[in-house]
Design goal:
- This protein is of the alpha/beta class and about 210 residues long.
- It has a single domain (about 5-10, about 25-214), classed as Rossmann fold.
- The chain has ten helices and five strands; from the N terminus they run αβαβααααβαααβαβ.
- It has a five-stranded parallel β-sheet, sandwiched between helices.
- Helix 6 runs parallel beside helix 9.
Length: about 210
């Protein structure tokens, strides 16, 4: 691995391990940013205080695809016996609206007063293609005409997101109960410009420490 990448990885890990704990977006060459994200993930996995989940935006089709790996890490064997089997949870994952997503996101967060050690750990979400994930969850339902309005200068003309980004921001990022590390595949396309590059989206790039890889 290039020495410059090792230096950058060490900088980000120091931020995480010494409890500054910024949320990071990695920009630049996709191979390098992916390599960096994977190495940070491996190092964070060695720490007792974190639950580390790996997410590839290209493979995620619905919110539960994103939340389930985290919930399994957090609840362990209890996930299948005390969570999935419950009627309230089945109803929750069937609700394709903002309230249901917010509750799922809240379930993923750190619970400081829990009697279970895993539930006290801070989840870290490592996401390949952060802008792709947010766009897919919040705007995939739009037709071509509506997509064109996403980038209009008139906020009132812009279609409303379904709420995924706002839910994970409000229940995990903003509360400090979860940390997000993601790569940006393309900061110039509509996926980035309508989510991370859009102040009106709320979970936009200024929620993160923006880190550029040469």
């Amino acid at each position: 691995m290039e020495e410059s990448l090792v230096t950058k990885i060490n900088f980000i890990c120091k931020d995480l391990f010494e409890e500054a704990r910024n949320n990071f977006l990695l920009y630049g060459n996709p191979k390098k940013t992916s390599l960096m994200l994977r190495e940070i993930y491996k190092q964070a996995q060695k720490r007792e205080e974190f639950l580390c989940s790996w997410h590839n935006a290209s493979k995620i089709k619905k919110p539960m695809d994103f939340f389930e790996p985290v919930l399994r890490l957090k609840y362990g064997k209890r996930y299948d016996t005390e969570i999935v089997a419950k009627p309230w949870f089945k109803e929750l994952i069937s609700r394709n609206e903002k309230g249901g997503v917010f509750q799922l996101a809240s379930l993923c967060g750190r619970e400081e007063n829990s009697k279970y050690p895993n539930e006290k750990k801070t989840p870290i979400f490592f996401i390949l293609g952060m802008e792709e994930l947010l766009f897919k969850m919040d705007y995939r339902h739009l037709n071509k005409t509506s997509l064109q309005k996403l980038l209009t200068g008139d906020f009132m003309e812009q279609p409303l997101p379904k709420g995924f980004g706002d839910c994970v921001r409000g229940s995990l990022h903003q509360t400090g109960k979860g940390i997000f590390y993601g790569t940006v595949r393309n900061p110039n396309n509509i996926k980035f410009r309508s989510t991370l590059g859009n102040y009106n989206y709320l979970f936009y790039c200024e929620n993160f420490y923006n880190f550029f890889i040469d």
